[in-house]
Design a protein that fits this description.
alpha+beta, Pnp Oxidase, Chain A, elongated
Length: about 180
């Protein structure tokens, strides 16, 4: 519904992570799939987010759809997906995306745009048939929800908010309405 109302990617989610000593950072990533086990995305594990998740494997995801005035926040532990899942997803990506992933050591400094473009051309020359292999550092992640908050904007700031908390012992969800 949200995507049909506006010109944006409804799968964009803000991934918030923190270092082992609690220093936060946030960035947008794209939801690639979800199921009863959690919400999944893919990234270079050498990136800042990958390093932070290795140090502190908990995160929050926030979706915001301004056209519908809705927000969903999800908090939980982050687990690595099996390597074969990352491999399968990587191989179905557009060739340009695979080349970009192979050419980039995500989050590392680079002298200039020209150097990045040179790296892309080198990958194209090395794999002229387009069979670019997945770098073993390019992994899949799954956030296993422990908490969901649904927010619906309303007139006069009388927003609707619902918090779902998973009981550790039973796995059952407790639902609470929150004041705006």
């Amino acid at each position: 519904e949200a995507e049909s109302r506006g010109n944006f990617d409804a799968t964009a989610m803000c991934l918030s992570t923190a270092t082992a000593d609690g220093r936060p950072s946030a960035r947008f990533v794209l939801l690639k799939h979800f199921d009863e086990q959690g919400i999944c995305w893919y990234s270079d594990s050498r990136s800042r987010k990958g390093q932070e998740l290795a140090e502190n494997p908990y995160a929050a995801l926030t979706f915001y759809w301004p056209e519908t005035d809705r927000q969903v926040r999800v908090v939980g532990a982050v687990k690595l997906l099996p390597a074969q899942d990352a491999e399968a997803y990587f191989n179905q990506r557009p060739i340009g995306s695979r080349i970009a992933a192979a050419a980039s050591h995500q989050s590392m400094p680079i002298a200039n745009r020209k150097e990045l473009e040179r790296r892309v051309e080198a990958i194209k020359a090395r794999y002229p048939e387009g069979n670019v292999p997945r770098n073993p550092a390019w992994l899949g992640y799954r956030l296993v929800p422990e908490e969901w908050e649904f927010w619906q904007g309303r007139e006069n700031r009388l927003h609707d908010r619902f918090l779902y908390l998973r009981e550790i012992e039973t796995g059952e969800w407790q639902i609470k309405r929150l004041m705006p």
